[in-house]
Amino acid sequence: MAIAATSELLEDVRQAAGDTQFLQMMGISKGKALCFVIDTTGSMGDDIDAVKTVTSIIINSKVGTEDEPSVYVLVPFNDPEFGPLIRTTDPNAFKRAINSLTASGGGDFPEMSLSGLQLALTGAPPGSEIFLFTDATAKDEYLKSTVIALIEQTKSVVNFMITNLLVSRRRRQSDNDQQQQQQFRMTKSDAQLYIELAKASGGQAIVVTKSELLSATSIITESSSSSRVTLLQAVRSTGMTENFIFIVDESVRNLTVFITGTLVNFTLISPSGVPQGSANMTGPLIITSQSVGNFQTLRLNTQVGLWQINMMSTNPYNLKVVGQSPVDFLFNFLEVSKAPLGGFDVVDNRPRAGVNGSLMVTVTGSESAIVTEVTLVESSGSGKVNGSVEAQGGREFLVHFDRIPSAEFVVLVKGEISNTSSVPFQRQSSTSIRASTVTITATDADSVLVPGTPLSVPFTLTTDGAGGTFSIQATNDQGFTSTVPSSLPLETGGSANGTVNITAPTNTTSGTVVTLTIQAVAPGATDTNYVVLRFTVLKTVTDFTAPVCQLLSLQSNCSDNCSLSMWELSVQVTDGADGTGIDRISLGQGNGIMNTSLAAGNGTMNTSLDAGNGTITLVTYNASCCSTDVELVVVDQVGNVGSCFYTVRKNNINTTPTADATTPTVSVNVTTTKPQGAVSMASKPVQFFLLCFSMSLLASIFQIT
């Protein structure tokens, strides 16, 4: 009975959300998200044109392939405005959104780049690769720690495409209302914020001229793939000579090296011992190479085995080695559960520094792969902490560490794909992880935010280190009003409680999701941690009744040869005088020729909708007599679902009901001797709070995994 009830609930969720969104919510989608965050201020005209061109190239080359993006996300930002976030699964709709962008405004030089990035990180799926385009510094640099928290929490990669030529911007003078040209230049120190955020996410900070942007963007986006894996990544803030090794297994193809930096020399050594240096780019190891601005990419002749790359530079650089392979891994840090049954809970923020810890590694893309070694490697140094690995079954491996490093680190996994593998596999996390002696906990159990009503969110702050006055900051991606104590005093090894109050405006649309990030910073900014919570805005629901259908007419000239005849249905749909109105109508069944204005289905369906209370929606449906059944799925504004089923069986019928045709029956059985029409109306109301709870629960489950 429980299984049947769950199945029925999931079917209601699918009908209310639609097939595409339902599959995404269940974590079933191909390809990665394509996410652009774009500065639309006055000097960005050439950059926007480059993005338009690249978007067309990506869509034209990847739609219909395994690398077709699962969702498209666009966030424009200006000054002081940013957003709105546009998210769609329709590539043509994304093209139209990109093509509608124009460059204007901007005022002073810094722009709202981090506000746009924050919105993208909360709106794009976890694990996304995000591209941010700008030629200006960030006016909202105070969001840096929030953005880093969201990068860590979502494990997303952010690439910054920076054009730093002298740019001209219109700036209005306050004294005489005249416009003047002023020139600004983003210096290397100005770009340091973007470099640090790219480093934290495992992305690139690519600095090019505006004329080079199209080439640079094409290079990095074309190399993006749903099966791209990271074999090695290292960031060095001071140049030095250093040798790196990485293993290429049999499953890897399209082996590629990214180098970001200036005046960086290298020597590659293949598994067979053949060397090739940066002075000779036409040797046996490098198939192709491209260089633009501070960004260089090398496509290597993929050879299985142990590779070496010796880096020689006096300048900072970023080295990243990637390939395409189905074999990768997911990971989550764990802590001992305080629940009565014990076990482990997933750590949703930074793990505790300097103490022992546990990690759950899940191998993806191979049923036979096993993990033999997991190491925490310092991102900017050579420090390592090895873990002990315990197989848990089902491609999961529990790893215990005697100590979690205090320095920033990445997770390095090695193992065997099968017993017949000639070499082990090696994979590395892109996102850097920071541990902390500060812990901040909160709960979003009351995850519904009613417009106009403040919601109190209590939190607890604990430190394993020195006490003092800890700074507190609370930000959200929707700009909702919130209050929080600016600081909390803690004793050494102590804890304190605080509360965030957040209020959604009264006109906020139901279903809006807001991400609240609460951060605590230790005295002297020596340590920090965060907690990320998500709330759904819902107006108080009084409509728990499903929409209803009334049959107006059913006309048929069906004969023995069904392919030569058609039947037509006319239905009136309402949500009642006290209902919230019809949101959409789709076809659950039907195999005719389709032409619908609202949702994909089979058959020809024309709809005329008005979402207001008590309005009438007229639906007509035409189909071949070979397709005798049709189901109309009707969803109102709060998610109640009505299912209206009709069928035609006999020949040559023209029916106009004289009575209310909404009386439930099993089917419409039409005969030639006694014309009649009947309808089976199966109403399945979905109470919206239950629907949203189910969606939130499923989203939380798949975000963890």
Describe the structure.
InterPro entries: GBD_Hemicentin/VWA7, HMCN1-like_VWA, Ig_VWA7, VWA7, vWFA_dom_sf. It is found in: Secreted. Keywords: Glycoprotein, Secreted, Signal. This is VWFA domain-containing protein. α1 crosses α2 and α6 runs parallel beside α7. The strands form ten sheets. Strands 3-2-1-4-5-8 form a six-stranded mixed sheet, sandwiched between helices. A five-stranded antiparallel sheet has the order 9-17-11-15-14, covered by helices on one side. The longest helix is centred in the first third of the chain and has 18 residues. The relative contact order is 0.08. The chain is globular. Helices cover 15% and strands 40% of the residues. The two termini are 28 Å apart. With 705 residues, it is an alpha+beta fold. It has nine helices and 44 strands.
CATH topology of the largest domain: Rossmann fold
CATH class of the largest domain: Alpha Beta
Strand tally is 44
* Count of alpha/pi helices: 9
Shape: globular
- Biggest sheet architecture: 6 strands, mixed
Compact overview of the structure:
Keywords: Glycoprotein, Secreted, Signal. It is found in: Secreted. By secondary structure, the chain is α+β, with helices and mostly antiparallel strands.
